[in-house]
Specification:
By secondary structure, the protein is an alpha/beta fold. The chain contains 14 helices and eleven strands.
Amino acid sequence: MHNRQQPGRRMVLGAAALGAGAAVFGTAGQASAGQRAGVPQELPVPLIVGHRGASGYRPEHTFGSYQLALDMGADVIEQDLVPTKDGHLVCRHENDITATTDVSAHPEFADRKTTKTVDGVKLTGWFTEDFTLAELKTLRAKERIPGNRQHNTLYDGVWEVPTFEEVLQWAEREGRKRGRRVWLHIETKHPTYFRGLGLGLEERLAKALRAHGRHRKNSPNFLQSFEPSSIQRLDKLVDCPKVVLLGTLKDRPWDFTASGDPRTVADLVKPEGLKWLAGFAQGIGPDLTVIIPRDADGKLGEPSSVVKDAHAAGLVLHPYTVRNENTFLPTDYRRGTDPNAYGDSLRFFRALLGTGIDGLFSDNPDTALLVAAEFRKG
């Protein structure tokens, strides 16, 4: 059902630097005809992004997770950025840190527990924007989904919440040690919400990148956001490659909701929507179901035309996220009845990479890389 393509060892940054209307990769091994000058071509296709590090094995967004992903060979390491009360950028998937830190065990912060509405969702817990960096540094990270990953709870309390500045310094050290650049995939989280609080993310991110010389076209990082307006803002501040993240077809970016734009992801992955995105981004990061839908029983269906259409618009594709556990896999790729046991993720990786995508986010970089190697053979 899923015919596997062999794209050869193409290089992603050629495609990532394509502007709107530029020629894109054609058949296996063909180079782009529309590359911008000075763009490095050091990343393989398909590339593997360590999702929040190697979060299948260590608590997410910790140096334990980042280091393990890098040691496993992940091509790019992901960070999600949220701000502190005093304006520092820290790495958490959400500003609600209830599930990812030991904050609830700190009586001195009991009065910080509150209820907020973030992007239309009512949440009760503790939030980064209510803590100074010094206060946040007294907390320790823990496993976000202990019911699924009990083995990760072994590392609860080992690592602090990292700042983005610390990650940039870490990447520089590791790059010198390894004799190659360490690539990052950096996301602005809830940018409209934070701008409303006077904690705009894009300017802070751009300032940090400029301080480390990571703001150029050939800099070793992708910038990403679920809000297209955040990428538009970043496009005016820095030149490095940018990716618009997309949820399921029914989803609507929060900045669209806030501004009254009626478009959904289904509209954005149509040729006219992709052409619009290519005016300020070099790639898209869709939910896996946008690439290969699932039927009513959760089984994998036939690939959509989104890969072909995005490539025709000059965009690369970095969909998210593959996890090895049964509960996260299509129903026809599960093994046994334990939802937390590993399923047939290798076969799922092959089905996804067979669509011709340029990269993939995974909590299990080692598993992903094993399959990616098959597709990198020319």
